[in-house]
Amino acid sequence: MPQSRALILESVSPLTLEVDLNVQQELQERLAESDRLRHQYVERVQYEAEQSRVRYMRVADTHPPAEGTDSNGDVIKKEW
Q1: CA–CA separation, 54 and 44 (whole Å)
Q2: Do the Cβ atoms of 76 and 66 come closer than 8 Å?
Q3: pLDDT in tens, 49-72
Q4: Whole-angstrom Cα distance, residue 4 to residue 44?
Q5: In the chain, alpha helices (H)
């Protein structure tokens, strides 16, 4: 047992603790950056989807309904 205790104490030096803490901090920073980028991507995709919906509604309101819809084009509009 005393040998394993000495080995543990040697491996837990102030330098290794500092390195471990620095690595942990770096990982947390990368995770936060990844979350920020993912959130930004989702916002951009939602914005683009909304813009597509608005453009479609403008066109659908000024053009005759497509085949396969009722007289007002409501089937297609309901999908949006």
Answers
A1: 15
A2: yes
A3: 999 999 988 887 777 665 655 555
A4: 55
A5: 2-11, 14-62, 74-79
